[in-house]
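tokens incoming
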């Protein structure tokens, strides 16, 4: 069995009865690694009847503390999407349990943390590695889009790194379907995610194509990997929108000569302020930067 210490109830706000009930199902609770307004993320362990253990993370959501639109709209949609998706570059859900108002979402643990922490610690990502990680992100996002699912909260904090340093997309709290029951595409109207990663059509508050908004966010992440800084300052939303629309982003002088023209061009077609001119994931996966070492285009 994996070894995890059980922390105090006060620290995790998890009742002993919850801990005991989880233990009976083979789960033990570790330490807190993240916290939001009505959700806490902790480490956890699981062992099956044969004693085989696995290292997990657990997102605990307290519906009693959450607003109504989350409980009745966003969270049910997140659960439905989580149970339907399966891709090597999307965090794998182990199980979902409920006790009273609390939902316990157990998922595979990403041993190397999130991409933002990695960049803060190590600086810009070398282009070859950035290309490999970007390819994994793009494939995961294309998989979602092919199932008419948009993530709507792509940011470096939601890109996790596994033990073998592979990308795992996480946090589907704002994810939604892009088509109705008849297959008709639906525009999004909800302002989702972080302004620093949000496309200009999202920032200005007009209905938007969530798949193309995801593509913009992917461009922001690629820029951050290569540049170790944000492309736009989000401290003033009016200025942010003006800078986005006028493509006022630039690579740091000491780095720009070390970044290939193809990588810069890939950033540019994603940070395109006009959604109809922005590249989608199929086009991105067939771009010259990613296809340089391969022969056949991706369908």
């Amino acid at each position: 069995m994996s070894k995890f210490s059980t922390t105090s109830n006060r620290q995790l706000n998890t009742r002993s009865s919850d801990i005991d009930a989880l233990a009976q199902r083979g789960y033990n609770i570790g330490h807190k690694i993240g916290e939001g307004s009505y959700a806490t993320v902790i480490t956890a362990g699981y062992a099956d009847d044969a004693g085989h253990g696995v290292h997990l993370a657990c997102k605990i959501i307290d519906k009693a503390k959450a607003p109504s639109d989350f409980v009745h709209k966003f969270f049910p949609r997140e659960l439905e999407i989580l149970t339907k998706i399966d891709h090597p570059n999307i965090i794998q859900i182990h199980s979902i349990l409920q006790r009273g108002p609390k939902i316990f979402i157990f998922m595979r643990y990403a041993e190397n943390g999130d991409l933002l922490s990695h960049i803060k610690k190590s600086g810009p990502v070398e282009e070859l590695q950035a290309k490999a990680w970007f390819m994994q992100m793009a494939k995961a996002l294309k998989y979602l889009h092919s199932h008419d699912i948009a993530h709507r909260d792509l940011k470096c904090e939601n890109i996790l790194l596994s033990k073998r340093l592979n990308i795992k997309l996480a946090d589907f709290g704002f994810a939604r379907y892009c088509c109705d029951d008849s297959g008709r595409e639906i525009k999004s109207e909800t302002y989702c995610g972080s302004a620093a990663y949000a496309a200009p059509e999202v920032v200005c508050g007009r209905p938007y194509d969530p798949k193309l908004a995801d593509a913009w966010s992917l461009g922001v992440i690629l820029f951050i990997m290569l540049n170790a800084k944000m492309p736009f300052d989000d401290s003033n939303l009016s200025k942010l929108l003006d800078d986005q629309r006028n493509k006022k982003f630039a690579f740091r002088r000491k780095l720009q000569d070390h970044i290939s023209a193809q990588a810069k061009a890939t950033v540019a077609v994603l940070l395109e302020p006009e959604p109809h001119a922005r590249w989608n994931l199929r086009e991105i996966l067939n771009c010259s930067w990613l296809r340089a070492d391969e022969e056949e285009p991706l369908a």
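note: DSSP finds twelve helices and nine strands in the chain.
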